[in-house]
Amino acid sequence: MVQAPGEARTDVWTLMELAKRFTIGETWCEQTLKGVPGDKLPNVLDKAAELGYKPTDTLLTSYLPQLANVLKLCGRIRSIRMSSTLLVMH
Description:
The protein is of the alpha+beta class. The chain has helices spanning 11-21, 24-27, 45-50, 59-73; strands spanning 31-32, 40-41, 80-82, 87-89. Helix content is 40%, strand content 11%. The longest helix is centred in the C-terminal third of the chain and has 15 residues, at 59-73. 4% of the residues are buried.
């Protein structure tokens, strides 16, 4: 693996930082998007609430634990530990 120069960060680091900051309420609400039917994406917050998601949940806390569980089931990792800002997989 090649070390990044200076204070450069990886793409994964950037995505993780964004996932900490965006909430379900900001990303799953109705959004204008030209080229899709009706030129908008639907609001799916009600459906998300039925699945146990809250509008204040971040993308990090919503998706990563589920991804880690899938990887664990597939034998790719042995253990998972999650804090409010960090997911550690071994």
